[in-house]
Amino acid sequence: MSSPVxxxxxxxxxxxxxxxxxxxxxxxxxxxxxxxxxxPEALMALTPEVTFRQAILFFTEADFVTGKAxxxxxxxxxxxxKLTQMCFSSVVGESWRCRxxxxxxxxxxxxxxxxxxxxIKPGVWSRRLPRILRNLHLEKFSVVGxxxxxLEAATASALVPSxxxxxxxxxxxxxxxxxxxxxxxxxxQRPNAVKKLMxxxxxxxxxxxxxxxxxxxxxxxxxxTVQNGFYGxxxxxxxxxxxxxxxxxxxxxxxxxxVQEEEV
Length: 264
Description:
NDK-like_dom, kinase, Alpha-Beta Plaits, TXND_domain-containing, four-stranded antiparallel beta sheet, globular, 11 helices, alpha+beta, 8 strands
């Protein structure tokens, strides 16, 4: 080829979906440009398996250091043939020289076991706990922490969805309900725990959840956006925060490595 390619290492939660959405927006922006303007082509592989196979074509063990970035893309100038390539790489930090490790081994190990927090809201867990626990077991979750507690106002406020934080009346409604009785908090563990939990719960609005899939938990147990049955960690950083918030004394088994790294 007459022009070089640019390899970019990126890291993110739900990385493949997020990058795919970003590239789709880029493509739409390029289509709106006049013929005299141009943007490079941006292409990516779609699965971790393809990513790994292509990684070994371009890199050796010595090329990788810690940081655990999740993929890179090959960017080609617009006039050249499209070619999709992608592989895992790493974000090089200031201390990389003393932390080198084999990321090929890391990739081959498969999905990491992560933690997520599920809070079953007042009035739900006391009636439905056996069924909820059975469903968690069927979905391959392990319960590594459990406690029932009466939430304080400050803790309840931290659980209010970000999209309603600017509405004082909505915040008050959420906090009033969350502090109206005893809640049950579970720390759950499994590969890809955060996303899997969100997939089970569904949207915050039970009516929307019902329209999407009646089997979603908020569709089954919720009656309104306030009394929707459950709070769940919506992202990995929030899961780390929630574990520290509700289980400061630790869990009933060794915490997963990623949580320990966040605490450093």
